Model the fold of this input.
Amino acid sequence: MDIDSIAPAERLDVLRTAERWAAEGRSLALATVIETWGSAPRPTGSHLVIDAEGRFEGSVSGGCVEGEVVTEALDVIAAGQAKILEFGVADETAWRVGLSCGGRIRVYVEKLG
Done:
């Protein structure tokens, strides 16, 4: 899977939301899928934008790891330090975040602005 398999309108929707929220003065983080393996449901290049209140738009996993990514994004917003998150069946978080079907996903989370 790669970024070309994401509908252009879907990518633009997330980025437009990020622009709108930034214009409103919200503190933001952007999570981007940087690597997948196996049955990961979202392709590389998929985005999730998160504000400091935990509101988000987009998807990095079709619902499997979004909650964990939002939690980590709040730390990124507060600390200003980017993180790479990894989830998969070999990882102890696999059962907690719902990747029990297999696969692995790496997500880069960075503060915007």
